Amino acid sequence: MFGTPTLNRLLSGNPVEFEGIKVFPVKNSEGKVTTGESLNPGDVYIAERNGPPLLLTAQRIDFSAGIVLPDCKQYPFNFDECVKVRF
After folding, report:
1. pTM for this predicted structure
2. Angle CA 1–22–72, to nearest 5
3. Phi, psi of 35 (to 5 degrees)
4. What is the mean pLDDT of each run of 10 residues along the chain (87 residues)?
5. Residue 24 vs residues 40, 56, 62, 63, 65: alpha-carbon distances, Å
6. Do 36 and 77 contact (CB within 8 A), yes or no?
7. In whole angstroms, what is the distance from residue 36 CA to residue 63 CA?
8. 22, 33, 63, 72 - which has most CB atoms within 10 Å?
């Protein structure tokens, strides 16, 4: 696991509360939690690196660099720093 409490909880399949809203990790057909390499443009995800977790929407996925680029002015996150969520 990545090492941040929020991402670890999501990767374990548990929901988290984000700014008063409960979000749930999205699982694929095999029951695995969806991380950055499985995101598509328009997907909502939680990303976390050196600061608080962020709720973002994917604009582009760069497979050659292994990053997800959000649709706002935030820096890109590595695949292992992102978990797809639903409300």
Report:
1. 0.92
2. 75
3. -110, -175
4. 82 94 95 94 95 95 97 95 96
5. 17, 14, 24, 25, 27
6. yes
7. 10
8. 33
